[in-house]
Write the structure tokens for this entry.
Amino acid sequence: MQWTELIIFVLLFGLVTVMGFVAARWRAAESLDHLDEWGLGGRKFGSWITWFLVGGDLYTAYTFVAVPALLFGAGAMGFFALPYTIIAYPLVFLPVLRLWSVSRARGYVTPADFVRGRYGSPILALLVAITGIVATMPYIALQLVGLEAVLRSMGFNAAGFLGHLPLLIAFIILALYTYQSGLRAPALIAFVKDILIYIVILVAVIYLPAKLGGWDAIFGAAEDKLTAENPKTGAPFGDILLNSNNQLQYATLALGSAMALFLYPHSVTGVLASRGRDVLKRNMSALPAYSLLLGLLALLGFAAIAAGVTPLTNNATGRPDTNTIIPELFNTQFPSWFAGIAFAAIGIGALVPAAIMSIAAANLWTRNIYKEYIRKNATPKDEAKQAKVASLVVKFGAVLFIVVIDPQYAIDLQLIGGVIILQTLPAVAIALYTKWLHRWALIAGWAVGMGWGMVLLYQIPNPASGRMHFGGSALALDKLNIFGWVPFDGSKVQIYVGFVALIANLLVAVIVTLIIRRMKNVSNGDDDTMGDDYHVDEHDENLRPIAVH
Amino acid sequence: MSSDKPGGRTTGLVFSPWNLLLLIPFIVLFTPIYNRRSPELFGMPFFYWFQFAVIIVGVLSTITVYRMTRNKPVRPAAGAAPDVDRLDEGSAE
């Protein structure tokens, strides 16, 4: 057990716990018994809070441990996270403004609420809601993977249930204050988390290159190790540059991930909690500051190679866990008090997104399943109560995932989650601009995109880990088989599965729309929204009041 | 049953030419441009520092769009009724 690290970790964890409970009273309304309050923090967060909240939401503990681990294991390909977060903000700059305005005007809390209003279709809304919940659950579980990597590095590396106990305690505390304070808790904690992360990364990227002989020595060591032959596959592990086969995968994975980012319910929650359009515009310009951080952090994966870090063996699974390389890097290269701060930064970094994700999933459940199908006459107070309980269920589901089932499944499911959340793009993002695509065509496109995406993921092996299925998201083009037609036979060029599935989804949606329009008598649903709704802003007159019962 | 509102206005699209600046950062998707080792900067291959540089380009383009579209009162496209009073119509269930 590493006592210095542990004491600092526990102190900082205690601090955010107090903040989490106090948050209920922070700029509070008279009561939290409304989803506008519990689930969206009163829809009044300004630029700074939104910046910390959305930043804390998108750059998660898992990102902090997994992206460097990817560079550590496979080289340049892992750096896709940088172009991904570079293009995400310019890409969504305009659509999120429309989404914010229409949600503010109509009182929508979730993306599925918008689909419900736009298309008058509870079924389409249900599909969007379920897709969102299914994609979010493993994402929450992955936050636990990040947290556990830190706990195991601090010495809590027991086998079996005992090894998971610290994780369980941390999550019970998190569940309690999220239950009480709603979105205000992660919003307040995000300040601590991000300040810690910034300090840790900045110190690390200045100190480590100096200690390890400069960036050229770090890249040199990385190149030597990565280009050596992997005994399991007979091919190199990777390289510090891309090769001719993985460039398309790099670009499509970055683009696909960027398009998926703001379709995730937790990102939408962060957006809808902001006060107005100006706050969002300012944030779309300022959030890339985190990209800089992420890029520097990613390079620590190479620094870990140069420092000769080896991943810790996870005593619960018996396998070496590459997600521990960043905690181990801090463990071996820094004084223990600083490692303690780094561990706390990553650990608290798991709590913020986990809280927001569980709130987002709970909102979806409450608004689009519970109120739509189970209790149609639920009052706003009932909704808030239901969502609070749902947030507990979601979190404990995620814990069970890690404790009972192999964490590897959480990672596989997260991979699938990215592919399936992309399939809601036509119904959510395109619908913000036009209702041209027919609602039944959207359902057909969704079904094809989901089904085909899943089949393609199933077919991808991973020779390095010896797995036959769900071995990654990179599809070799020669595996692309459309009813027996193989358009790129013999090509080893790889592409992101989610991108392929989205194109199929869009094609089907367009074709079915054209067919339905010929039939003429099929309703496309009543549209609750009006043109003006998409331009509403905070100071407009006659704006819908927040949290009315 | 048609979903179209009277006058066929359903989206209220607004477009400013400044928005085109948002396309610039997408240069980072064209990997052949920068998938090279040289020139290096502080021992970092071009592949890496080029992408760091595009972060700054991206920030500049989003800030420009933000500033240039800020103070213009946004008007819905032709045919839209400008009064916001209608927003309350049917907004409460």
